[in-house]
Design goal:
about 15% helix; single chain; globular; 5 helices
């Protein structure tokens, strides 16, 4: 089930910016060890262009054991840890050291399981029940909700049995895409301002809405 519409290497084998846009509307699937399948439609992504990108972990072309997934074939997962406790999930694209960060999902299937996973992994406010729109509205939140951790680093999204991408249902018209500055890269000088974050306009599931970018996109 599900593998009929699974996206393969040919989908991932494109440069980071077109791949970041192409991800929007596709469905990320996570099969848990007990067979439960969780699904979320991708509504927000962030592109990293490789060695010249001052915000990328591969800036300057440096390869380390940590960032090796960025230099592997397109569709390879690059999962890293932030603040010593949260995970972020990227997918390598065409081009050495280039990848796309998944920033937000619209939960489609398995929401109660996602809620349980988030509550178990969250610190502090675990007593409050999360709203649906809070489940996957950020890169670390979606990793919590789908039980994605460092063990997924360097896995092949085109081949893996526990996580894969399915083609989203065909929409009557392509969703309007907003191109905005990336989030969390303030240290990167002029690269912090480049419009390399993409999200579905009007989606309530997006992590950060950029009204100025939306006006520019409409213009």
């Amino acid at each position: 089930k599900g593998h009929l519409t699974r996206l393969g290497l040919e989908f991932f084998d494109q440069p980071a910016v077109p791949l970041a846009r192409a991800f929007l509307g596709q469905v990320l699937v996570r099969r848990l060890p007990n067979g439960t399948e969780l699904r979320g439609r991708i509504v927000e992504t962030q592109a990293y262009l490789g060695p010249e990108d001052e915000a990328a972990h591969s800036r300057g072309g440096r390869q380390t054991p940590r960032n090796r997934g960025m230099f592997m074939k397109p569709g390879t997962l690059y999962v890293y840890i932030i603040y010593g406790m949260y995970f972020c999930m990227n997918i390598s694209s065409q081009g050495d050291g280039a990848c796309v960060l998944l920033r937000a999902l619209e939960p489609l299937e398995g929401l109660e399981t996602m809620r349980q996973l988030r509550s178990t992994l969250r610190k502090g406010t675990a007593s409050r029940v999360l709203k649906d729109r809070e489940l996957c509205s950020g890169p670390s939140k979606l990793c919590q909700a789908l039980a994605i951790n460092k063990s997924f680093d360097q896995r092949d999204l085109a081949q893996d049995e526990a996580v894969w991408l399915e083609r989203g249902p065909l929409e009557p018209s392509e969703p309007a895409v907003v191109a905005a500055a990336r989030v969390g890269v303030g240290h990167a000088g002029e690269w912090a301002r480049k419009p390399l974050r993409f999200y579905v306009r009007g989606s309530p599931w997006v992590s950060v809405v950029d009204r100025v970018a939306e006006q520019d996109t409409q213009a």
